[in-house]
Design brief:
- It is a single chain.
- The longest helix has 24 residues.
- A 13-stranded parallel β-sheet has the order 1-3-5-6-7-8-9-10-11-12-13-14-15, sandwiched between helices. A two-stranded parallel sheet has the order 2-4.
- Helix content is 43%, strand content 9%.
- The relative contact order is 0.05.
- It contains 20 helices and 15 strands.
- The termini are far apart.
């Protein structure tokens, strides 16, 4: 055989299955969210996750599984990606099962990697959180922590989450932790006493607190430990010795008024704090006052989360006023509280002091039209660079739509807009969709689900996003869109630069449903749909000079 024959390689063609498109990944997150928050045999045994918690877990699972599968794919670049897809699917199913078995209270942040900052050269992490949640005894604790006992080790970050320590295991771990506490900078002891009797859990906390007292930490995560005031005070020695914290996570910890007061009293300095997360606690208005005191003493905060903490109007006002001291804030999450209009107006007065805001989450705060418009008017002036805006579940209706639309027109950097679970109907949908149609080139996600609009509103939102480069998700689910309207939406998307892949699930759409006309004297009847659709072409949203 001549050399030419030997060098000849037949030309082959194959279809690459990896990586999945961004819209496919978003659809997977949506499906996982539904599965995690739907009644099942697991929810009856372990408890049902709320939609927000399910969504946070779904996003975390997808990102972790995608990263793992992508690394696998890079090792076989000549393959079609089928093995990466199989790994992606297998790991996703496995992690979903783990979340379901843990039940509610397992948030994305609490299970995130121990640090949110990139690993520096020379850093080493000891993470024993992998695998199933399990009780560990003294001998196993010694074995798991044995890397910390090696001379000259350079461990700076530890994560003990998802392992339940009893007193014997804690006594075994204590001396080991004390021997390395001067080199530690980040400690994650979230969810580390699950299933233990209260007295034993408190003893374990005290042992860890004593062992870590005096360490100079920048990151501390004590979430998912059902602390209450007793638990906070069990960590007294550790907390009182921290003057350099940059990130503090106290989520799903039963932080009541007394617990919030104890936390505020014990930490000597929060001046360097950049991240403070209080999600899913029982803080209430009274506890919010003490959280507000911590916030006032944290001028360098960049990310503040106080969602699902039962805070009402008075606490919302106190918290909103305190946030005025945080002039470097970039991310603000106050979702799922009972603020009401007055707290919304108080927040609007604070927002001009927060010029660096990039993400703001204000869903389910009962802001109504008045509070929402006050907030948006402030954001329009102080943070036109906003990238994420969530205002779901605030009773925004068609009467508030013109003012909302005017504000949205000024926010040309938006990447994600959520207006779900409001009362826009067709009239409001037309106006808001028109405000998004021109510009907004960076918009990637629009969620206007459950807004009681019909065929006209659906068409308008489809037109608004059909030609935006990089757009990946339009959620119009849970509305009253006729079958003909759905077909029209699909035709609009097909005719634009984006494909049908951007259209989210429609499993909760009710094609036979009609909006409630109560409190909406100006609502158009069904016969006026086409007339309204034609008029929307002439709707103009005034922009500030």
């Amino acid at each position: 055989m001549d050399s030419a024959s030997q060098d000849f390689q037949p030309r082959t063609f194959s279809i690459k299955l990896w990586p999945p498109s961004e819209s496919t990944r978003l659809m997977l997150v949506e499906r996982m969210t539904k599965n995690l928050s739907t009644e099942s045999i697991f929810s009856r045994k372990y408890g049902l996750l709320g939609k927000e918690e399910a969504h946070e877990n779904a996003k975390r699972i997808e990102q972790l599984c995608f990263t793992s599968a992508d690394e696998h794919f890079k090792k076989e670049p000549d393959g079609d990606g089928s093995s990466a897809v199989q790994l992606y699917a297998k790991d996703t199913s496995k992690m979903m099962l783990e979340v379901l078995k843990k039940g509610p209270g397992t948030t994305a942040e609490s299970e995130a990697p121990v640090a949110v900052t990139p690993l520096e050269s020379g850093d080493t992490v000891l993470d024993i959180s992998g695998g199933k949640r399990a009780f560990i005894e003294a001998e196993e604790a010694k074995e798991l922590l044995s890397p910390l006992t090696k001379p000259g080790n350079s461990y700076k970050r530890i994560c003990f989450s998802n392992r339940s320590f009893g007193v014997d295991a804690a006594n075994a771990a204590g001396p080991i932790l004390e021997s390395v506490k001067n080199q530690l900078t980040e400690v994650d002891i979230s969810d580390f006493v699950a299933g233990r009797p209260e007295d034993e859990a408190l003893d374990v906390m005290r042992i860890f607190s004593k062992a870590l007292e005096g360490s100079v930490l920048r990151y501390l995560n004590i979430s998912d430990n059902a602390l209450g005031e007793k638990g906070v005070r069990a960590f007294s020695e550790l907390l009182k010795s921290q003057e350099n914290l940059e990130e503090l996570y106290v989520m799903n910890d039963g932080i009541s008024e007394d617990a919030a007061k104890a936390l505020s009293e014990l930490i000597p300095s929060t001046e360097k704090l950049k991240v403070l997360h209080f999600h899913n606690n029982m803080t209430g208005d009274e506890g919010a006052v003490y959280v507000a005191e911590m916030v006032k003493r944290s001028p360098n905060l960049e990310s503040f989360r106080c969602s699902a903490t039962r805070i009402g109007s008075d606490g919302g006002v106190a918290l909103s006023e305190a946030l005025g001291a945080c002039t470097h804030l970039k991310k603000l999450d106050l979702r799922d509280n009972l603020f009401g209009v007055d707290a919304g107006i108080a927040l609007s007065k604070t927002l001009p002091n927060l010029p660096d805001l990039v993400e703001i989450y204000l869903s389910d705060l009962n802001l109504e039209n008045k509070g929402t418009i006050a907030v948006l008017n402030a954001l329009k002036q102080s943070a036109p660079q906003l990238e994420v805006l969530e205002l779901a579940g605030n009773e925004i209706n068609a009467k508030g739509a013109p003012a909302v639309a005017e504000c949205l027109t000024a926010m040309q950097s938006l990447k994600k807009l959520t207006l779900a679970e409001n009362e826009l109907k067709d009239e409001g949908a037309v106006i808001i969709a028109k405000s998004l149609e021109d510009g907004h080139a960076d918009l990637k996600e629009l969620d206007v689900s459950t807004n009681m609009f019909q065929r006209v509103g659906a068409r308008c939102f489809a037109r608004a996003v059909a030609n935006k480069p990089g757009f990946v998700m339009l959620n119009i689910n849970g509305n009253f869109i006729s079958d003909e309207g759905i077909d029209e939406v699909k035709d609009i998307l097909k005719a634009g630069k984006n494909s049908l892949d951007v259209l989210g699930s429609l499993d909760e759409n009710d094609p036979e449903g009609e909006p409630d006309d109560e409190d909406d004297e100006d609502a158009e009847n069904d016969d006026g749909e086409d007339e309204l659709d034609s008029k929307m072409q002439n709707v103009q949203v005034e922009q500030d000079d």
